[in-house]
Amino acid sequence: MAVRIITDSGCDIVGADNPQLDVLPLSITFGSTVYADGVDLSHEHFYELLVEGDELPKTGQVNPYAFAQAIERAEHDGFEPLIITLSAKLSGTYQSACMAASEASLPVRVVDSGHVTVSERILVEYALGLAKKDLGVEEIATRVEAARERVVVIGLLDTLEYLRRGGRISAAAGAFGEMLSIKPVITIENGEVKMLGRARGSKNGRNLLNQQIEASRGIDFSMPVALGYAGLSDALLQKYIHDSRALWEAYPGDELPVHTVGATIGTHVGPGAIALAYFEPEQ
């Protein structure tokens, strides 16, 4: 039986028209208005609301009922479902999926990606590639869980404002950092966001980003790669790509895959952040 990948909008895949993929929206609440991420709230509109608002929005996990419905849709359409969620340490969405799977009429595998945004995305894309080869659920899940250990994601923030507003750093640290034009470099490690370093100025930030890439085992260009930007313009990301073009010379496609970063992470990093995700080569 063919496999359908069920995932959440934390992977930032929007507008996909693929019968083997079902993306369930997280909820995004601005004030008293609740939106379905990527359904009635585009990434562009999200950043417009984020910049205009005085308070940060709240994100809500995908609930068990939504997963149960997705499982039923897959069965009805003749697919065997495989669920891949954003990191269980960042959201209760994984637990929701497990609850729905436990109540399903057939066995349903649930995989914690351990990631979010572009790094969750490349794991979903990898799983879709395996599904198109007509591999079964168990083999796809096993391969995704093994490949998960090879995923590297690195992000460069343009501002500390949203970390300050979200209470993740103090007001004094935020103000001091903004005054010195501090650009944090972050990653996801063991399912949680981790600070890799802080650079003074955008150029030094991009250099620190490249140092982190060079410190890894390199990029496996036979696997999915994704670059993302937060905000309404990809200008900062395009500058980074241009300045770091030697890193991407081996990419086999015509253009690097560039995507928008949605609300799940955008709420905390704000506009101007850039991120890249790739698989290290197998050892």
TrEMBL record:
Q: Which InterPro entries match?
A: DegV, DegV_C, DegV_domain_contain
Q: Name one GO molecular function term.
A: lipid binding
Q: Which UniProt keywords apply?
A: Lipid-binding
Keyword field contains Methyltransferase: no
Q: Is Nucleotidyltransferase found in the keyword set?
A: no
> Which Pfam families does this UniProt record tie to the protein?
DegV
Q: Which domain of life is it from?
A: Bacteria
What is the designated name of this protein?
DegV family protein
